[in-house]
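Contributing new records

If you add data, match the layout below exactly. Sequence lines come first and carry their own label; structure lines follow with theirs. Keep one chain per record. Anything else will be rejected by the validation script.
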Amino acid sequence: MAGAPHKKGLSYFSHDTNLSLDPKIEFLEAETGLQGYAIYLKLLEIIYRNEGYYLKTDERSKKLLAKKFNLEYDLFNNIINICIRENLFNQNIYNKYNVLTSTGVQKRYLRGCDRRNSINVIKEFFLLDNNSINDNTNSNNVNIISINDSI
């Protein structure tokens, strides 16, 4: 009997309480109001829930997301472009692969995977070194915080 399918995404991701004080986020808000902040967080939720560390985009998917968020496409696209210019998402990866990701996203993803035996990543999208993956998939770390499981 086959085991359960390997889960890619996360059910939870950490959200820094000082995020809105980050100059990049302050600029995003200055340009787009709270809509930009909200959309950035919605994109993070989608990233972490689905693939875990990236979101592949194209014109079609961006139009569908804009509709889902009840935004004009131009505003939604502008928010993404500001996030890229402010390095909230990596510009090189976006330009080359139409993928939204960042080192911060990937670090939080790996922290969220600390109990997994293995993590599969697409090397072209991955911004961290291979040691980051190996540090988080070491079988010795699987139950490292089991004492806090029920807290």
